From TrEMBL:
Location, primary (coarse class): membrane
Domain DUF202 residues, every copy: 17-77
TM regions (residue ranges): 54-76, 96-118
Cellular location(s): Endomembrane system
The keyword Oxidoreductase is assigned to this record: no
InterPro entries: DUF202
Membrane topology value: Multi-pass membrane protein
Organism: Methylobacterium brachythecii
UniProt protein name: Putative membrane protein
Keywords, sorted A to Z: Membrane, Transmembrane, Transmembrane helix
Domain of life: Bacteria
GO cellular component: endomembrane system
Length: 119
């Protein structure tokens, strides 16, 4: 085992780094999903004159699906990290906040896909 005692300050610093890294990862999943969503909306808006309707719709829906996957992954990873860090002394962002933001973005992606599918 390790020679480091649980009350060693290095343990607290390691928990801090782990929690901060998890929050950065959560934010990057959301940022990537928002980028997919934005590109899908921009493609639908600005490529109407360049591409036929059907391939453009498929492209936009594929980008919305990628956005949805990113938002689901963000919520899933946040839950997995919380399970592993349930004994940590550092405070995590409230689960209602992280899950609520992910659910809101999932709903927005779904709504964008529905609006795109029915002209």
């Amino acid at each position: 085992m390790s020679n480091i005692a649980p009350d060693d300050p290095r343990v607290k610093l390691a928990e801090d780094r782990t929690v901060l890294a998890a929050e950065r990862t959560y934010a990057s999943w959301l940022r990537t999903g928002l980028a997919f969503l934005g590109v899908g909306l921009a493609a639908q808006r600005f490529l109407r004159e360049v591409l036929p309707a059907w391939p453009l719709r498929v492209l936009a829906l594929a980008l919305f699906a990628c956005a949805l996957a990113c938002f689901v992954a963000a919520a899933w990873r946040d839950g997995a990290i919380r399970t592993r860090l349930n004994q940590a002394q550092i405070h995590l962002m409230p689960r209602a906040l992280t899950l609520g933001v992910a659910i809101l973005l999932i709903a927005i992606s779904g709504l964008a896909a529905i609006v795109l599918w029915w002209p």
